[in-house]
Amino acid sequence: MLQTLAKGGPVMIPLGVCSVLALAVFLERIWYYWRTRSDSNAVIASVREPLKQGNYLEALQIAKQAPGPYAGLLSAGVAYADKGREQMQAQLELAAQAEIQQMERGLGVLSTITTVSPLLGLLGTVTGIIKSFAVLSGFQGIESPAALSAGIAEALITTAAGLTIAIPSAAAFDWFNAIVNRRVQEMNKAGNIIMDVVSEHKGEEQ
Questions:
Q1: pTM of the full structure
Q2: Closest to 52 (Cα-Cα) out of 184, 198, 190, 206
Q3: Could you tell me which of 137, 136, 134, 131 has the C-alpha nearest to residue 158?
Q4: Torsion of CA 152, 154, 158, 161, to 10 degrees
Q5: Residues 75-93: b if buried by 16+ CB within 10 A, e if exposed
Q6: Rounded to an integer, what distance in angstroms lies between the CA atom of residue 204 and that of residue 195?
Q7: pLDDT digits (tens, 9 = 90+) for 26-51
């Protein structure tokens, strides 16, 4: 296997780097999303009752222990529950942006690898064909078929390597994006519920 990859020429070096980076990002994101998974409905329910009673300190303590991206979001909302609705919403939006940045970390690398890997494979194809034509131009095509086949092998191997890296990287990128989008929707839902509960409580007090 290694001998076959070595026939791909120098372009296989950046392709190897891309494959290592893609695998590292994939494993790290899998671990992150698994570690931060949670039931948004259960998290919201845990802070809803204290907020209804105006017990913001208890709600804040529960929010800080919430798993996943909800800890920072709910903590920000509860911490500003005694302020105006606009100020509370602004803090929720800031907290949501910070959580989204955490969830999207590394996805830009996967996107770049998805784009660059096929191009590197195409570059290897071009250099391989150039080598083959160089052999033919030297009138060695008939006498030295091994030299001709080396250029063709380099072209095919680099093309296959580039696609082999790009295809799973693109699939992983789309999958992770779907996870992030779903969590963003759940965070928006949680933030709106928190604001509604707090507003309702203040209205009852008034």
A1: 0.80
A2: 198
A3: 131
A4: 100
A5: bbbbbbbeeeeeebbebbe
A6: 14
A7: 999 999 999 888 777 777 777 777 77
Residue with tokens 């030299």: 147
Beta strands in 54-107 (DSSP E): none
Token reading at 179: 């996870």
Q: From 164, 172, 176, 157, select the one nearest 19 (Cα to Cα).
A: 164
pLDDT, tens only, 134-192:
666 665 445 556 655 666 777 888 899 999 999 999 999 999 999 999 988 888 888 88
What are the structure tokens assigned to 159, written together? Answer: 């093309």
Q: Which residue has the tokens 């992983």?
A: 172
d(C-alpha 52, C-alpha 178), whole Å: 33
Could you tell me which of 61, 44, 11, 47 has the C-alpha nearest to residue 190? 44
Query: Would you report the helix, strand and coil content of the chain in percent, each value rounded to 5?
Result: 85, 0, 15
Tokens coding 192: 């709106």
